Every structure is written in structure tokens, then in C-alpha cells.
Amino acid sequence: MFESVDNSPYNVFFDPQSGCCKPSDECGYTYVSPTQWTAPANFNSTNPDCSAWGNDANVLCFNCQSCKAGVLDNLKRNWKKVAVINIIFLIFLIIVYSVGCCAFRNNRRDNSYWK
């Protein structure tokens, strides 16, 4: 993992990880380890997510608005993929059903000539 000038990790976070696993950049926290960040001495921010951050691994910033927005964005992205797959599968089923109906009708028509 690369380190940037301000000693914070230089890796790319997914939306939920970025909002839940590290404090917002505007809070001014100093990176210590992936779950340890220290608040600046004169901590003064209007962002409510800054005061919600906790270094406890079970808390971090899971109650932050940025975390909730990241999870929601991730869900929307995943559901769009699932919806596209479902539509493709539905079209495939309609085609198979249509071919089956045509085959059944043709088979019935062919059998009526022999009687």
C-alpha cells in the first residue's frame, strides 16, 4: 500500500468503505492506522459526521450520513445489475415459451391429418 505525504493510505475505497471506515477529509483527522485516526487539537467542524467518528472497530462511522449514502449507492448499483439480468432472463423465457407453444400447435396440427 502506498503512503501519501500526509501519512494517510493512498488506496482507493469503495463508496461504503470511504464513508464508513475513515472520517471525512474535511474533518482534518490524522491517519494513524486503518481504524485509528486522531482528531486535531482545535477540532471545530460543522459536519455532523466529524463528531460521529469513533476509533472503536465496531463503531467507526457506521452511523454517519456519508456511510449511509455509500451503502445506498452500492445497493442501487447492485440492484440495477440484477434488474438487467432479470430482464434478459425474462426475454429468454418468453422466447422459449413461444417456441414451445409453436411446436405444440404444429404437432397437434400434424397429428390431426392422420385421423
Gross geometry: rod-shaped
Describe the strand arrangement of the main beta sheet, using strand numbers.
Answer: 1-2
Low-confidence stretches: 1-12
Strand content: 5-15%
Question: What's the overall average pLDDT, rounded?
Answer: 76
Topology order in helix (H) and strand (E) letters: HEEHH
Q: Sheet bearing the most strands, described?
A: 2 strands, antiparallel
> How much helix, percentage-wise, in residues?
40-55%
Number of helices: 3
What would a concise description of this structure say?
This protein starts with 14 loop residues before the first helix and ends with a helix. The chain has 115 residues and is mainly alpha-helical.
Index terms:
single chain, 115 residues, mainly alpha, 2 strands, disordered N terminus
Q: How would you describe what is shown here?
A:
- With 115 residues, the protein is mostly helical.
- The protein has a domain at 15-81.
- Helices cover 52% and strands 6% of the residues.
- The chain has three helices and two strands; from the N terminus they run αββαα.
- The protein has a two-stranded antiparallel sheet with strand order 1-2.
- The protein starts with 14 loop residues before the first helix and ends with a helix.
- The model is unreliable at 1-12 (pLDDT under 50).
